[in-house]
Here is the input.
Amino acid sequence: MKLELIDISKKYGDFYALKDMNVTLENGVYGLLGANGAGKTTLLNILIGVLKQSSGRILLDGKDVKKMDVAYLDKIGYLPQYPKFYPNFQIGEFLDYMCCLKGIAAKKRKERISDVIEQVNLTEHRKKKIGELSGGMRQRLGIAQAILNDPEILVLDEPTAGLDPGERIRFRNIISRLSKNRMVLIATHIVPDVECIANEILILHNGLLVKKGNVEELCGAVGNTVWEVTASDKQAEELKDRYLLANMKREGNKISMRIISEEKPSEAAEAVKPQLEDVFLSVFRK
Amino acid sequence: MKILYYEIRKNFLRKSIFAALAALMFLNGLFAYFQYRQTGSGFSDEMTRHIASEGEWDYRQKLHKEFDGAVTEEKVRRLTEDYKKYYALIKQGDYSTEYDPDTNTGYIYGDFSLLRSQFYEPVKYLVYYQGENDLLVHRAKENISFFKELGNDFEASKNAYIVKKYSGRNPLLFYDTLGWRKLFEYDYSDVMVFIIMFLCITPCFYAERKSGMEHIILTAKRGKRGYTYMKYLSFYCSAVFLVVLFALYNYAVMDYLYGLSGADMKLFSLEEFRYTPLDLSVSEFYILLTALKCIALCGIVTLFGVIAKVFSNVITIFLVMFAFVTAGLYGAGFICAINPASRFMALVSPFSLLNGAQLYKGLSGADIAGHFVPWLYWYLFAQVLIQAGIQFLLWIYGRRCPQGRGV
Here is the structure.
């Protein structure tokens, strides 16, 4: 399966929320990174067909998705940002409703619901009302509804926002399991959430796709620009003003700093292996 | 169909709505009871158990037992004799209010008054109705040729309509009509239905937008096509259910308070409906009124739905709906107006059909190329046209907007 985005732009007046996006996506997990307002949700909304692009085309295996109409929707599963669903619905009832909406045959619904509930570890909570679920359970329910129709494209908007570390890990594992034979697109601004599960990262900045590649490629492209240095308070103040700071940690009387810079920030600085977060920061500094 | 069920489940089958419904039904019953307590006096045809003394009530019940049902010559003779007997006593000037053990109500004028206002006059109306109606039809027949000669097609058509609709009428049944009149007039329950529909519809789009469900639904195969339509369909189903529920409830309450006897009695047996073009029984007429209310409510909830969808803020939705209800009720107040501008306001107001009983009290219609068309058809046509227009706009918008969801 191949999803091609060709010259996709979205304009509001003179403002481009998304500009000339050209990318081809295939099976695997894609992390869509960007700060708030970078255009992630705009891109996702265009992808899922609830927002019309100002220009450009989307092709799925060579076919224009506009012409595919609902046949395209059949291939999509979507989880929005902070979903609340219907608090007075039970989990099973909600998923049955989603089955109806997704056109899943009545005979297969029961089996399909049991299957997805099991996949997201909610079987024992099936009779619970959605209003009684924790944030993590609700997100898992969101995944369950998204995969009901066994979609080829799974679109997740900020899926881990507001989750505790345990739930985030659990969530990541579920995504990894689901990514077999399908395309998973995760939009987030939380770098660690995609770092370990994404096959490829797309970084958006001010509506433009500024970087694309796997974690190694992106980190490699940053090259020797990430430094670690231990400095006194006074030196730390100076370095902080002059360089882009990725991290800062007090260690006794000294401060350990992680700096992103083309030049070596100080004699004592040591080049370290860049991480995705450093790539992210370096993009946004520009 | 299951999607429709879930739409109803989301918006209506909720604990908060059930609680509101229970409270409003209780309030509705209370209003009906207060109205009952304020109804009538012993000297009018509006006597209730609450207002009557024990003697008056027992006498009334006794007379109803005697005269209810088919109006026969024997009953008319007995009633006339009793009336004449009392009338003779009254004529002598016996207005004494002292207790008289030989009377039914306790004093002679009480007996006379009750017999006259609740039995003699209503039966007299029924007995004379046929003759007066035949005369009306006869004159209408004469008028047809008269207006045809003058080339006045509209009046000729109107008189032809009278001949067709009013011929051969004979109200043969006599029962107490108070309960039916009160039932036809009672409209507090319409307000209750508005309130519930308002509670259900106001947040339905807003909440889904907020909860992220709107996009989920729109990315589902059947959600994209049917999202808005299923919502509107659920509004209609719920509105019809509520109207029917309150109609049954009002029927039960009025039956309990006033007693609704003579369901087969013709509508024109009620004096205020003497010129109605309908040849229906009172129970059939109540069903017709309920059906008209269902149509009216469907029109109202469509507009509620459009308002709820267009505005994204609950307070704005509330204010716009409030303005819409106020304007609609104001327009509906002109349902029987003669002034064309006022009549137009009533025509476009979906609230007009809630006052269906007003349209049937007499014969009124408008001239369409020399043909008489009763106003009710105009109101129905206007509402169908407006609804079709709204649905067409929704469809157009749904096709043009990328979401395909309409307004």
Notes: Chain B has two domains: 2-39+181-400, 69-174. DSSP finds 15 helices and four strands in chain B. Residues 402-407 of chain B have pLDDT under 50 and may be disordered. The CA atoms of residues 74 and 177 of chain B lie 22 Å apart.
